[in-house]
Amino acid sequence: MSLPLDASRVRALAAGEQVRLNGVVYAARDAAHKRMMDALDRGIDLPFDIAGASIYYVGPSPGAPGQVVGSAGPTTSSRMDVYTPRLIALGLRGMIGKGGRSPDVIEAMMRHGAVYFVAVGGAGALLGRCVTRCETVAYEDLGTEAVRRLTLRDFPALVAIDAAGRSLFDRCAS
Predict the structure, then answer these.
(1) Which residue from 34, 44, 101, 167 could staple onto 39, CB 3.0 to 4.6 Å apart?
(2) CA distances for 166 relative to 78, 92, 171, 172, 174, angstroms
(3) What are the mean pLDDT values of the chain's consecutive 10-residue runs (174 residues total)?
(4) The overall pTM is greater than 0.85
(5) Which domains are delineated in the chain?
(6) Which residue of the set 5, 26, 27, 33 is catalytic?
């Protein structure tokens, strides 16, 4: 599946669907999200075009010689839930992480057409091999939590929550 995502493709995805993601995502974790919200509150543009973008909740480790990054496993997505509805309203189409999402995030996904993918936690070294390019785009002072532009190739993920609000987490609880 090619990134960035368009609205029709997002609406066609179904919870439980396996995908291989190819294209650009933005790596951003807690500190970067807070800084992005502070920028928006001050009327400053985000450090990347959010329209159609996907965010991967990851802080990739440095790569060994010959590697673009080292480990690139997902972090717990719920820590970003306080910020996510606002980003979705601005055009964020996809998110990659691990764990469930709040009702507010799911409602924003349904209203604006966004999708949440999960990647396997604990497989960061393997997921890092799917990153073919990595460049810092903002907040370099945050170290591993800086915003990075990652190019993915054949990144394995599952649609965990689709744009209709259907959730793998609901199925697992039943």
Answers:
(1) 44
(2) 17, 18, 9, 12, 13
(3) 94 97 97 97 97 96 90 94 98 97 98 96 88 97 95 97 93 53
(4) yes
(5) 7-173 (3.20.130.10)
(6) 33
